[in-house]
């Protein structure tokens, strides 16, 4: 018999980013307590599939439905039992696949020759050397290494005349913090601004992290009085920076890499400043021609309706359009300020990801290819400009903005970290499913008629995958067969809603580059039917409530009279 407790405690979605995921145990507890004698479960807003998985584990027939292509993709592929050795072979195939042509720069010079394995090609982008000294500084170490990541930083600029005037204004009101900030945190320089040389204050995130205590100790009582937490902490000083940025006195002038995390065979793990070789590598990368321009997520973060373009609700323009090396923002993008998904990657990582995606796309077996896509998206958010290498989860803020001090993570390293997490889950799943024919059963169908024909056959077609507007489920199911509605509906309130369309589009923008994936799971237009309160989509709270009411009325027409609703 298979290990039932192991399966029920296994978090198959743990390796993946999805929003408002519920623990499997909660779903299983609800079903055991309220629906132990029920046979057919429907989740009309199934998302990442926790509730349908719970139903399968309880031996029920299950209908999964969600408009979100990414949710459907995750829910389906995360629970498919497959031999991890087969997946390892696929990974080896992806990384060993030869580059189909020379990787060239704009001047025609070959950077990486045709035939180089894709894995080796990707690692070239992160190849570096240790710049520490040997023999008491007589010789440079120069040991070849691969960077784990690069730390970037942002330079802020404040015209001295404007900064001094504002600090004086605050001082006259008894708030000396701004004057302390300018005197302690900032540097005085002359810079070209709008074509003119002017005197400015400048500072970076690094300055903030290194000097905040000095600023705080200038007048501890003042800082304590002016902060809600009444604590000596960096946030107290960071708040002044945030306020100056918010009122547009301080502006982001540029962003650049300043440190690299390497492992030297002699000096071990080190976080070092970039050296001349690193900047030469950056210059080379900036000049490389994209080998697969059709495999870049070029879609804009906008809604098109009534002939107008509306940017995503969860988008921060001022943190996206910042001058930087390895930029993926071209001249046209700067002119129209239209954000695109590619803008949230450095050119180094965008090149690496497109090479990796191309190699996965060559896999002929659809199921194996989708499992590789599952691995591709597992840590995709970790190779964007969302990770700050601090406490908490990457992209925890939940909106589109390049962090001012982001970590540019090694794409191949993150790909393999994702595999390490997924391998644990797949190994347990495969072992459990292989151990007995009487245990957990997974026999899927995408066809409602086929599902209905086998409704009374316990081991046949026990999960139906649907991606429909929940208001259309009556037309798909037609009969009163549902005896458990188990769902967590979308939340109301523009500021409190989980913007599933906007957040999931980060992953979908890549996956839809494969036409076959798009044909199976869907495209980027599903926002039109999303049930949400979002003015950018042209939907109000009243629209949300009306749509949700329509869904529940429709569901009532395909449920049995004694059905249990768990919401």
Describe the structure.
The chain is of the alpha/beta class. 40% of the residues lie in helices and 18% in strands. The chain contains 21 helices and 20 strands. Helix 2 crosses helix 3, helix 7 runs antiparallel to helix 8 and helix 9 crosses helix 11. The chain starts with a helix and ends with a strand.
- Give, in spatial order, the strands making up the sheet with the most strands: 17-18-2-1-19-20
Principal-axis shape: globular
Structural class: alpha/beta
Unreliable runs: none
Cα-based radius of gyration, to the nearest Å: 27 Å
Say how many strands there are: 20
Please describe the biggest sheet, giving its number of strands, its sense, and whether it closes into a barrel: 6 strands, parallel
Mean pLDDT: 92
Strand fraction: 15-25%
Helix content: 25-40%
Query: Whole-Å distance between the termini?
Result: 33 Å
Oligomer: single chain
Number of helices: 21
List the SSEs and their pairings.
Blueprint (H helix, E strand, L loop, with lengths): L3 H6 L14 H11 L5 E4 L6 H8 L3 E5 L3 H10 L5 H13 L6 E2 L5 E3 L5 H7 L2 E3 L3 E2 L4 E2 L3 E3 L2 E11 H13 L4 H8 L2 E7 L2 E9 H13 L2 H7 L7 H13 L4 E14 L3 E6 L2 H12 L14 E4 L2 E4 L19 H6 L10 H15 L4 H13 L28 E3 L1 H25 L8 E2 L2 H6 L9 E4 L6 H5 L4 E5 L13 H12 L3 H7 L19 H16 L2 E8 L1
Parallel strand pairs: 1-2, 1-19, 2-18, 17-18, 19-20
Antiparallel strand pairs: 3-4, 5-8, 6-7, 9-11, 9-12, 9-16, 10-11, 12-13, 14-15
Helix pairs in contact: 2-3, 5-15, 6-14, 7-8, 8-9, 9-11, 14-15
């Amino acid at each position: 018999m298979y290990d039932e407790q192991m399966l029920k405690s296994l978090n198959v979605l743990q390796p993946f980013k999805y929003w408002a995921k519920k623990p499997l145990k909660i779903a299983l507890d609800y079903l055991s307590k309220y629906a132990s004698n029920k046979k057919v479960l429907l989740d009309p807003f199934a998302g990442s599939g926790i509730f349908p998985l719970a139903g399968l584990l309880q031996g029920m027939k299950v209908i999964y439905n969600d408009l979100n292509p990414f949710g459907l993709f995750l829910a389906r592929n995360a629970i498919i039992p497959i031999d991890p050795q087969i997946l390892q072979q696929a990974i080896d195939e992806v990384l060993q696949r030869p580059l189909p042509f020379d990787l060239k720069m704009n001047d025609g010079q070959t950077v990486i020759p045709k035939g180089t394995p894709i894995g080796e090609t990707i690692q070239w982008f992160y190849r570096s050397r240790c710049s520490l000294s040997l023999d008491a500084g007589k010789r440079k170490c120069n040991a070849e290494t691969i960077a784990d990541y690069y730390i970037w930083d942002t330079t802020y600029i404040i015209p001295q005349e404007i900064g001094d005037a504002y600090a004086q204004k605050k001082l006259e009101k008894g708030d000396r913090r701004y004057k302390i900030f300018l005197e302690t945190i900032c540097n005085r320089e002359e810079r070209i601004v709008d074509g003119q040389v002017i005197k400015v204050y400048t500072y970076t995130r690094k300055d903030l992290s290194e000097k905040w205590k000095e600023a705080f100790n200038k007048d501890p009582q003042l800082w304590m009085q002016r902060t809600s937490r009444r604590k000596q902490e960096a946030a107290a000083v960071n708040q002044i920076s945030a306020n100056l940025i918010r009122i547009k006195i301080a502006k982001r002038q540029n962003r650049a890499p300043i440190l690299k995390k390497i492992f030297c065979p002699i000096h071990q793990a080190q976080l070092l400043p970039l050296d001349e070789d690193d900047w030469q590598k950056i210059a080379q990368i900036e000049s490389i021609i994209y080998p697969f321009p059709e495999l870049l997520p070029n879609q804009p973060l906008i809604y098109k309706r009534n002939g107008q373009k509306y940017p995503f609700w969860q988008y921060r323009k001022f943190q996206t359009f910042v001058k930087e090396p390895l930029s993926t923002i071209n001249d046209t993008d700067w002119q129209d300020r239209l954000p695109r998904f590619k803008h949230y990657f450095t050119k180094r990582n965008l090149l690496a990801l497109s090479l990796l995606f191309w190699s996965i796309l060559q896999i002929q077996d659809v199921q194996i290819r989708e499992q590789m896509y599952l691995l591709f998206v597992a840590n995709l958010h970790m190779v964007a400009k969302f990770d700050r290498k601090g406490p908490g989860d990457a992209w925890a803020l939940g909106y589109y903005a390049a962090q001012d001090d982001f970590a540019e993570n090694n794409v191949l390293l993150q790909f393999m970290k994702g595999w390490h997490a997924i391998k644990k889950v797949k190994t347990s799943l495969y072992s459990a499913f292989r151990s007995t024919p009487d245990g957990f059963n997974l026999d899927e169908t995408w066809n409602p008629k086929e599902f209905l024909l086998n409704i009374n056959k316990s081991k046949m077609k026990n999960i139906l995958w649907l991606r429909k507007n929940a208001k259309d489920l009556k037309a798909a199911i037609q009969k009163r067969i549902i005896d458990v509605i188990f769902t967590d509906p979308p939340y109301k309130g523009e500021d409190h809603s989980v913007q599933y369309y906007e957040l999931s589009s980060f992953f979908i923008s890549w996956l839809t580059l494969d036409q076959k994936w798009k044909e199976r799971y869907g495209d980027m237009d599903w926002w039109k039917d999303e049930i949400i309160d979002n003015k950018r989509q042209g939907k109000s709270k009243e629209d949300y409530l009306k749509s949700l009411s329509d869904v529940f009325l429709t569901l009532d027409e395909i449920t049995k009279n004694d059905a249990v609703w768990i919401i």
